[in-house]
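== Item description ==
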Amino acid sequence: MRAGSIAAVSAVTEPRDADRLMLLEVRARRGVTPARF
């Protein structure tokens, strides 16, 4: 949830960076903690 909030805030200032965070977030969720998400 925390990373999602950061991505949301970044979406306002840097849309491209937000997309990067979203991709990293998805990778982290699938690879590191798939059970939580």
Q: What stands out?
A: DSSP finds two helices and no strands in the chain.
